[in-house]
């Protein structure tokens, strides 16, 4: 139960990445050189690979690394070490959590563009006032991830201060 949320975040990210970018996964994250694009009779251009964000082709190696570590942890490591190992060696966990927490919906046509800055205006303009919980995530999974991190933080303080095992 303790390591299940981290393991599920890694597996969900890997599954979504593989569904969204099958051409990157089949190509093992290696981009095709421009000289090889026009070798076929029909000169089919491959789908452009995303350059930025959580679906970038550069994230493939981190996704594969985190998925292999997750499989190793589930099969061979004690549950208390799993969360420590995944959180300390896989940036994908934090990227995926930030992706779920941020509002990544595309703006509708005709509406003004959404800001690409993840910070709230209160955090950018006020020097001493930080709006930590002023904008809660709107998606269900973003609320679940935020609740898990807050619960993990509070339980860790309570259990560790009472000399109980906690990792």
Automatic annotation (TrEMBL):
GO BP terms: GPI anchor biosynthetic process
Primary localization class, coarse: endoplasmic reticulum
Signal peptide positions on this chain: 1-27
InterPro entries: PIG-V/Gpi18
Cellular component annotations (GO), alphabetically ordered: endoplasmic reticulum membrane; mannosyltransferase complex
EC number: 2.4.1.-
Entry GO MF terms: alpha-1,6-mannosyltransferase activity; GPI mannosyltransferase activity
Record-linked Pfam families: Mannosyl_trans2
Similarity remark: Belongs to the PIGV family.
Name assigned to this protein: GPI mannosyltransferase 2
Source species of the chain: Portunus trituberculatus (Swimming crab)
């Amino acid at each position: 139960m303790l390591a299940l949320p981290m393991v599920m975040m890694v597996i969900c990210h890997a599954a979504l990445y593989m569904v969204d970018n099958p051409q990157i996964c089949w190509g093992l994250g290696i981009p095709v050189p421009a000289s090889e694009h026009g070798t076929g009779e029909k000169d089919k251009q491959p789908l452009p690979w995303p350059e930025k964000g959580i679906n970038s082709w550069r994230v493939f190696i981190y996704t594969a690394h985190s998925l292999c570590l997750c499989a190793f942890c589930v099969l061979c490591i004690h549950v208390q070490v799993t969360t420590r190992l995944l959180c300390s060696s896989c940036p994908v966990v934090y990227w995926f959590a930030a992706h779920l927490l941020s509002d990544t919906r595309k703006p509708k046509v005709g509406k003004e563009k959404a800001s690409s800055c993840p910070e709230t205006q209160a955090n950018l303009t006020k020097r001493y006032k930080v709006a930590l919980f002023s904008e809660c995530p709107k998606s269900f999974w973003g609320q679940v991830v935020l609740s898990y991190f807050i619960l993990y933080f509070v339980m860790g303080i309570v259990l560790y201060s009472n000399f109980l095992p906690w990792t």
